[in-house]
Amino acid sequence: MSPDIVVCGLGPAGRALAHRCLARGMTVTVVDPRPERRWRATYAAWADELPAWLDPAAIAATVTEPRAYGQREHRISRPYTVLDTAALQTGLDLTGATVVAARVTAIDRHEVRLDTGRRLRAGRVVDARGLPRRPGAAEQTAFGLVLPRSTRTDSALFMDWRDDNGTDPGAPRSFLYSVPLGGDTVLAEETCLAGAPAITPGELAGRLRHRLRVRGIEVRGDEPVERVRFRVAGGAPGSGTFGAAGGYLHPATGYSVAAALSAADIVAAGGTGWTVSARAVHRLRRAGLRALLALPPAELPGFFDAFFDLDIGLQRAYLSDRDDLTGMLGAMSRIFAALPGSTRARLAAATLHFPAPSHTGSASVIME
């Protein structure tokens, strides 16, 4: 007998969807080449994004009032949570699901073909395998070190664009992201928000070490390392895809886990999570990515000053609320009005798809 659903991919999005389908009493098959693989990435979310059903044990730490720096300091009145990766994976329990260790070669609405030659049929098939890398596509990259909390590392930095990472003024910009991991450790991560091509993790590693040294933070050289590289554009909204593959990744921030967790129940119930407003918001966020790629490095800190000057409701609309079209338009218009005329011209050209060079990498950007 065919299961109710086959979920392809066991990253956070696929596992969350399968977990919520099981919670609804559905018969579930999951497919992944390495279903027992343990997740290593650090995931975080604004506290108000997380669904009520999520086990509190999945939260490793909460920053009550994170800070950001463009050209000046901003305090963000919105609690920010860092997830315990191992507890999150364990908490998305798959007891009762049929687990198939194989690679998917083809998918349609009711059938999955595997590299073993096997075919799986189901009432519904959902692709949650994420986005493969693609030459020329915009990516986010990062290099991080896990440090003891006893160091002088600031553990409440959502985004720090200050220029003490040893780069030339005209070089592509990166920022410091620093959060507690729970217990006695802190993640300090140098991040390229988006670039085409993005700054390499090797270059980011040098910038991070320089920044820490300038701030008087000792690094031994044997600290645990986190490397990040993923595509920030792509995905096809619809009933057959979920997570980054389904357009749930925020193009201008790279965040997707909280959106997938929040939407898992809706999709498990047969919905798509894509209202008319949500599709419009997604298009505007893709325009926001084009705008970021078009800005010269020197103008990025001022752009984020304008963003973090927004009231918290408009910040939330831009960062989190997938179907608040009014709030999204309000946030974008307020930022636009606060910026200098030359910056506004570049943003308008990029948003409307007029030719404009990219200043975060090369001039060629694929926006699927």
Show the helix and strand layout.
Layout: E1 5-8, H1 12-23, E2 28-32, E3 44-46, E4 59-63, E5 67-69, E6 73-75, E7 80-83, H2 85-91, E8 98-101, E9 104-107, E10 111-114, E11 119-121, E12 124-127, E13 139-148, E14 157-160, E15 175-182, E16 185-195, H3 201-214, E17 225-231, H4 257-268, H5 276-294, H6 300-308, H7 312-319, H8 325-338, H9 341-351
Parallel strand pairs: 1-2, 1-12, 2-8, 5-14
Antiparallel strand pairs: 3-7, 4-7, 5-6, 9-10, 10-11, 13-16, 13-17, 14-15, 15-16
Helix pairs in contact: 1-4, 5-8, 5-9, 7-8
Description:
29% of the residues lie in helices and 23% in strands. With 368 residues, it is of the alpha+beta class. The protein has three domains: 5-39 and 80-132 and 232-268, FAD/NAD(P)-binding domain (3-Layer(bba) Sandwich); 139-231, 2-Layer Sandwich (Alpha-Beta Plaits); 276-351, no CATH class. The strands form four sheets. A seven-stranded mixed sheet has the order 6-5-14-15-16-13-17, with helices on both faces. A four-stranded parallel sheet has the order 8-2-1-12, with helices on one face. It has a three-stranded antiparallel sheet with strand order 3-7-4.
